[in-house]
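Morning F.,

Quick status update on the modeling queue. The single chain you submitted on Monday has been processed. Sequence for confirmation:
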Amino acid sequence: MGENKERMLAGDWYLPDDPELGADSERRAELCAAYNGGGRLAPAERGRILRELLGSVGEGVRVRAPFHCDFGYHISIGARTFVNFGAVFLDAAPITIGADVQIGPNVQLLTPTHELDPERRRAGWERAVPVAIGDNVWLGGGVIVCPGVSIGENTVVGAGAVVTKDLPLGVLAVGNPARIVRALGGT
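Structure tokens below.
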């Protein structure tokens, strides 16, 4: 494994234009194209492609095309989770999604972050911080989850929210930036 990929996997600053990372991205592009372009694919074939693309896929997971990711192998999706159309999961760091999660259309789970220093940003330096979504979470349409955020189980995030900080279990959060508006019962 090359130094840049090791740095990325360790959460350190790395340069994403590395040839090894480029090869991984090409693999991802081919698998996503097959998954997204296969409107007539049998469910078994669609499942096979998803299992080849992602790090782990639980029983009964459904991901509607189109689906886009950086690498795929950093993504883990728990059983019975549903991901609606237009999901973008930028997985330069691990993205862990629990069981029974509902993800609305056009949701973005983002792990990469860029340098604030203009010279280092111009040079292309970035790093990635994991995202974790607990069991039985519902992310409404268009939600954006920023790098390093964890969302506790049984939490609901309203459509269009931008989640910049961790959310505890069993709350309703809305807005930009997302803020907790109330606790949810039954958690």
